[in-house]
Amino acid sequence: MSVLDLKDLSIDFPTTKGVVHAVSDFSVSIAAGRRVGFIGESGSGKTTTALSAMRMLAAPGFVSKGEIHLHSLDSTNLLGLSDEAMRKVRLRKISYIPQGAMNSLNPVVRIENQIWDGIIAHEGKVAPLELKRRSTEVLANVGLPAHVGELFPHELSGGMKQRVCIAIGVCLTPELIIADEPTSALDVITQRHVMQTLREVQDKIGAGLILIGHDMGLMAQTVDELAVMKLGKLVEFGPVKQILENPTHPYTKDLISSVPLVGGPSFLDSPPADHTNQTATSSSLDTPLFEFENVSKTYGEVTALHPMSFQLDGAVPKIISIVGQSGSGKSTLGSLMLGFNTPSSGKVKFFGKDINRFNSREKLAFHKDVQAVFQDPYACFNPFYRVDHALSFPFKRFGLSKSDAHTRTAMEEACDAVGLDPNLVLQRYPHQLSGGQRQRLIVARALMLSPKLLIADEPVSMVDASLRSTILKNIYDLKEKHDISIVYITHDLATAYHVSDYVMVLFHGQVVEAGPPKAVIGDPQHDYTRLLIDSIPWPDLNRDWGSASTAKAALERLDSMPRDQSAVLRGDIPGFQLESM
Amino acid sequence: MSTSATQEPQLTKAQQRKMRRFDNPWLNPKLLWGAAILIGIMALGLIGRLLWDTELVFTGSGPLKLPPIGFENLRGQSGITDHPLGTDGAGRDVLSLLIVGAPNSLYVGLLASLIGMSLGIFLGFSAGFVRGRVDDVIRVLSDVMITIPPLLILVVFQSAYGDVNLTMMAVLIAAFVWQSPTRLIRAQVMSMRESGYVQMARLSGASTFHIMFKEMLPNLIPYLFGSFIANVTTSIVTAVGLEVLGLGPQRVPTLGRTIYEAINAGALIQNLWWWWGIPTLFLALMFIALLLINIGLDEVSNPRLRKL
After folding, report:
1. Residue B243 covered by a domain
2. Does B1 have pLDDT greater than 60?
3. Taking CB atoms and an 8 Å cutoff, what residues of chain B touch A61?
């Protein structure tokens, strides 16, 4: 029996430049106990569609056509309800689990009070003991101990906060749960646990679930039916198995093929050569391009990075991947390499000279040779200037520009090289471009400066899934065609597997496993690497993710892992030398 | 969040016009009205000087206590065209007092605010950018200064110093309006220095000067404008407050000084309402204009305030 029916739904946003049809003629019905995924890139209307069922569209959006029926109501049409009747529907009948749990909980109210708020709003006065019993029960349902109720949000980890949001969402046993990218801010290990928790609690109360997301793998592991959306239209709908194995719409095919698999076919035209059988030859340069000499970083009591030494030759360009979950110290490593951070001990050397002792002229030369691509393509452009500024300013500053016309041609060539039409992107303001376009412009910027080393800190984690492989291809081309060595910092083992020549797995600021990707990721030896790989949601129904209890056991195993064990080294490649501590 | 978004909203002409504000936030009506009133006051000061005899601000240039045109004073005299807004107890022409006095009050406000802002930008950038010791000193200093009531110090200073001129007064007031821009800019700079584009600029080999003034400052402009206008208001309030207490410049006519003299001469009980009323009305207009500009600038820097 279906819980919610959306019939021919169209949602419009009137703007000064005409009406934007955010969603058009969308029909879907959600059955009790079924999980339906809405997948599509940002701006495809998936969140807008789901919010219309809560009647919480952001102004000035409105439902221009169609009906929304919630079948447990006397008059099933949601759009005809009064505001007060609608208030009673929210949370009790349809609940919403927001994207950023960090910002969704009130920081000054205890967790259990936030759960009680919802209960009291719908049931009026409830005895305190009863409230306490129910909040404890609902917390237990999402696998949290009772004492969590007495804590404040800042005392919980990201995964715990997201589970509290799920607990609030299910405390009145709604008929439908809408989860809007509930794990997008979490790392893979926590993501698995949260998603399994959500699945199990939803099974238990028998509610329907709408999961909004853009990750095909996550969908495959979680939902029963999948609705693929593009530009506000439903392009394909069906059981997840059918869509994964036999997609009919080209966009769906794109989405599926954009997820790289460990061990699967490469998305690159010329994947990196297999170095495993080669013996490490001595470096061809006397002084290595980049060197870490016992570098460590501590913030007060916390050790972000344990002493580490490596040498990057740079004679032959390499892609070195650094993988780990959030808090593993991988970004600290990146900022140490860029000189944004000074090491607590040891030396970071560039061509044999300590980068933290450079004078201003040497610093300029260093920055010319060591560039970066950051995670957030939205923040990397100064909103005050046209995007050209970000490309032309360093070009002139490093003395590469011969004339304005030369700068202009260099910019156009760089845009062409990363597959952007210079006429469409140059001379625009940052907010006029999409995230993918901006990130490619940053890659184009790096290309124009032709540095010796590029530090790419999670370059694709904030870009739509369908664009990730294209941008990684651009970055890979920097190495292949332009001889730039790259340090690729990521939490995504699948992409690291494909693009890199060497992989270092970081855990609590320590290298636990390192070597060529085929060995480290293809056949992991260390428990932590194995756990990371097991937690990846595969877009493959035959590879099950396991249940919440296995995810929980994995997290506990992670906590009990010894902190100071030696790294498992899996062979060397020429030109890069990691010294085991 | 709109809960009644079920029926199609009929966009009226007025709504469409309001929507256009999203295109250019600088053209919002509050900002335009505020600017228009302020420019009007300044125009009165400038054009009035050409068309009206400013010598009439001196004592005894006209009959005493004449009402504005169309009114009668207690002695039964009615207003004459030589003094359209009447005269005060010493025979000074009220219109020429406005023409000379209103720009003086604005001048003090603008100059004090300009000095205060410059100090604030300098100190705020230093504190936010350099951090460490410099930040500690500036932060503590501005926090302490915020707790000291400026009027108290100024009253003591002015009464000890005797007569001051307008510029001197502006400088004195400026010493009390630099704290809030300092704090504002410090906070903005501290969050901005971690932003992606500042890091990008550093990677581009940008100098500290370039990062401060080319990358950060342009993005602070709406805040700076807002803070500047708020400071002008504070400065004028402080200046008028001192003048009404009789502690302002003794030789230059200002709006506050006119009110001081009106109160001193018992204008309230003699029903000489034009003497104190018209300058007060002018000050009120000035504050309303500044407030409108401030709200308008708020909408520019914070798009969420732009409601339909």
Report:
1. yes
2. no
3. 2, 5
Q: How far is B115 from chain A (nearest CA, A)?
A: 26
Q: Structural domain tally of chain B?
A: 1
A280 touches chain B (CB under 8 A): no
Q: Over 80: is that where the pLDDT of B25 sits?
A: no
Q: What percent of chain B has pLDDT over 70?
A: 90
Task: Look at chain A and count its residues.
Answer: 581
CB-based contact A62 B9, cutoff 8 Å: yes
pLDDT 10s digits, B174-223: 999 999 899 989 999 998 888 889 989 988 988 888 998 889 988 888 78
3-state SS record for A19-44: EEEEEEEEEEEEECCCEEEEECCCCC
Across the interface, whether the CB atoms of B308 and A59 are under 8 A apart is answered yes
Residues of B within an 8 Å Cβ radius of A: 1-9, 11, 16, 19-20, 22-23, 195-197, 199-206, 215, 218-219, 308
Q: Which CATH number fits domain A2-257: 3.40.50.2000, 3.30.565.10, 3.30.420.10, 3.40.50.300?
A: 3.40.50.300
Ramachandran angles phi, psi of A184, nearest 5°: -65, -20
Say whether the ipTM exceeds 0.90.
Answer: no
Q: How far is A79 from chain B (nearest CA, A)?
A: 6
Question: Could you read off the pLDDT of A386-418 as tens digits, one per residue?
Answer: 899 999 999 999 988 889 999 999 999 999 988
Q: Detail the DSSP E strand segments found in A80-190.
A: 94-97, 176-180
Domain boundaries, position B188: 41-305
- Whether B122 maps to a domain, the answer reads yes
Q: Provide φ and ψ at A259, rounded to 5°.
A: -90, 110
User: Do the domain assignments include residue B103?
Assistant: yes
Residue A218: in which H helix or E strand, if any?
helix A216-222
Q: What CATH number is given for A290-579 in this structure?
A: 3.40.50.300
